[in-house]
Amino acid sequence: MEFKGFMEKFMQSAKRTQEVVVQKSGDVAKMTKQKMAIMATEAKIKDAYTEIGKLVYDAYRDNEGDSDIIETKCQEIDELYADLEHAKETYAKLRNMKRCTVCQKENAAEAQFCSKCGSALAEQVDTMPQSAKEEPIVEVETAE
Q: How far apart are the C-alpha atoms of 88 and 111, rounded to whole Å?
């Protein structure tokens, strides 16, 4: 009978371990997807900067300018930076970290001061409970 009890406990322990592994692998997949969204947004920002540079040079070369096109491109970059900030904030939450509002450095959830600039960090950590981790990942279209 002791062997049967041992095997039942062993099977329960194995099942709990499996559940944890599945949960952790899901968390890693979400973090990876979020990191890829950050990298895609950064690439789009770089491309937009390149386009602005080309527009400015073309205007210089042709001795004409179209400030409306450049302004539209600059507004696009502003929107991309807002998307990037949101993606980075979501990534920090997925990793149970908090970001300094002064220098943007990620700090441990229990930290009270930023490890980079020394600024006081928010008292309340906005961690993502398991149910909230189902929040949609910020998806970014890639430039073709």
A: 19
